[in-house]
Amino acid sequence: MIVDGHAYCFPSPNERLDPPSEEDPLRHLQREMGIHHQPAWRTRDRAPAGVDALIDLGRWATLDSLKDADFRAAGFGRFEWRSGDEVIAKQYQPPSMQDMAYPPERLVAEMDYADVEWALLHKFQGTTNDYMAACVRGFPQRLGALAHVAEWRVADDPDAAIAEVTRAITELKLSGLQFMPYQMDLYGHHEAWDGPEYRPFWDAVAALGVPVYLTLLARRDPAIESYRSELRTLERWMERYPETTVVHTHGFPWRMFIDGDHVALPDYVWEPFANQRLHLQLLFPISLGNVWDYPMREVQPVIETCVSRIGARRLIWGTDMPMVMRFWTYRQNIDFIGRHCGFLADEDRDAILGGTAARLMGVPGADSASPSG
Q1: Which of 223, 266, 276, 323 is deepest in the core (most CB within 10 A)?
Q2: Cβ-contact 240, 234 below 8 angstroms
Q3: Which domain holds residue 231?
Q4: pLDDT in tens, 12-40
Q5: pLDDT surpasses 60 at 324
Q6: Which among 275, 285, 280 has a CA at the least distance from the CA of 306?
Q7: Could you tell me the CA-to-CA distances from 269 to 74, 186, 288 in Å, in that order?
Q8: Residue 79 CA, distance from chain mean position
Q9: DSSP SS3 for 255
Q10: Does residue 81 form part of some domain?
Q11: In 241-283, at which residue ranges do the beta strands (DSSP E only) sit?
Q12: Separation CA 361–CA 114 (nearest Å)
C-alpha cells in the first residue's frame, strides 16, 4: 500500500470560500513568494529579478514586511507583481495549473495513475476545515485531512480555538491537527508555542487523542539558532503531552544543512526523537528538486541515517503534490524511494512508502503495531 503522507487540495487563490478563511490567502501567498527559493524573473524578457518590490526581507517573519506591489495570482501556476514599470513573476505551482486550483478530483486522478492508495491533505493558504472535510467526503476511501486552527488566534481567544479544533475533529471527522508556529509571527506573536497561554488549547487537543503534525521552521534570524530553539520547544511540549503522537512535517529544513554535494545534519536534530512517538516526514524533492537532479543520489546517505537513527516505522514519505510537479512527476516521487534506494530492506521501504502513515492515520489494511524506533 502506497500512502502519500503530505498532499494538498485547494481552491483558486482568487476564490472566496463560504465560510470564509480566517486568513487573507493572497497576503500569505505574497509573503511566501517573497521568501521562497523559486527564482523570480521579468516577464518582459525572462531575465532574473529580485523581490525588493514585494517584501522587506529585513522583516520577513511578519506580514508588516509586505509592500504594495499589485500582487496577484496570474494563472498557469505563477504569481506576478509590479516593480516600477516591470512585471515580475515567480513560478510556484507547476505551469499546468491554469486556474491555480487543485480540487480533490485532480489529486485522485494523479493518485490513480501513480498507484497511490490514500493521501493525507495538509493545510494550504486559503483552505478551511469545511473545505478539507468536503474533499474527504467526496473520496472517503482515498483521502484524509488535517484540521487547522489559526495559530495567531490561539493565545488571544483560546476558547474559540478549542471550539474550532473540537468541531473539526468530532463533527467534520478530520484526522489530526496541523500546527505551524511560524504563522504566529505573521501577526506579531513571537512567543514560544508551548507557553502557559497556549496550554488550555493543547490540553484540549491532547484530550481529542489525534496526531499533531507540527511544521517547524526558523521563525527569525539567525535561522539555524531559531530552528534549534523550535526543536527545544518541541521537546518540552512532548514532555507535557507524552501520549500524543507527533509528526515533524516536511522533514528537517534540508536546504539549511546543505554542505557542498550533501546534507550534513547536526547531532542536535536527533535529540527530540528520543521520544518514540515522534515521526519524521521525508519530502526531499520539493525542498531540493532545484538543487540536485533525479534520482537525487546526494540525499541517499541522509535517508540511510534517518533509518538508522529513527527507524523506518517512524518515517513517512510524502510529496507536497501538486507543487512538487515543478520538478518531478508523482511516479518519480515514488520511484525515488521504491527503486533508487537499494540499501533499504523491503520492510523498511514498505514502511516509509505507506505503512507508517497508514498505521498512524488508521487507513484500512494498516497494522496496529507500535513504532519500533
Answers
A1: 323
A2: no
A3: 3-7+102-361
A4: 988 877 777 777 889 999 999 999 999 99
A5: yes
A6: 280
A7: 39, 25, 19
A8: 20
A9: helix
A10: yes
A11: 246-248, 258-259, 262-263, 278-282
A12: 21
In total, how many domains does the chain have? Answer: 2
Same domain as 212, residue 177: yes
Q: Do both 77 and 135 map to the same domain? A: no
Stretch 129-154: mean pLDDT, rounded?
97
> Residue 73 in contact with residue 81, Cβ under 8 Å?
no
In DSSP terms, which residues pair with 179 in a beta bridge? 214
Q: Quote the longest CA-to-CA distance of the chain.
A: 61
For residues 111 and 77, state if they share a domain: no
CATH number of the domain encompassing residue 248: 3.20.20.140
User: Same domain for 56 and 85?
Assistant: yes
pLDDT confidence band for 368 (50 / 70 / 90): very low
Mean pLDDT of 167-192: 97
pTM of the model: 0.95
Whether the predicted pLDDT of 266 surpasses 60: yes
> Cell 490540553 maps to which residue?
203
**Separation CA 341–CA 325 (nearest Å):** 21
Peptide bond just before 13 cis, omega within 30 deg: no
**Residue 116 and residue 47 share a domain:** no
pLDDT over threshold 70, residue 349: yes
Amino acid residing at 207: A
Q: How far is CA 53 from the centre of its chain?
A: 27
CB atoms under 10 Å from CB of 275, counted, come to 15
**Which string of DSSP letters, residue by residue, matches 35-68?**
H-SS-EEETTT--EE-STTTB-GGGTTSGGGB--
* R_g of the chain, CA atoms, integer Å: 20
Judgement on whether residues 111 and 46 belong to the same structural domain of the protein: no
Q: Which of 49, 70, 91 is a domain's end point?
A: 91
Please indicate, yes or no, whether residues 57 and 125 belong to a single structural domain of this protein. Answer: no
| Whether the predicted pLDDT of 370 surpasses 80 | no
Q: Which pLDDT score is estimated for 365?
A: 67
| Final residue of a structural domain among 71, 91, 111 | 91
Count Cβ neighbours within 10 Å for each residue of 99-119 and write b for 16 or more, e otherwise: ebbbbbeebbebbeebebbbb
Please check whether residue 230 lies inside any domain of the structure.
yes
User: 201 with 171, same domain?
Assistant: yes
- CA 236, 222, 126, 283 torsion: positive or negative? negative
368 in a structural domain: no
Say if CB 120 and CB 4 are below 8 A apart.
yes
Residue 17 lies in a domain: no
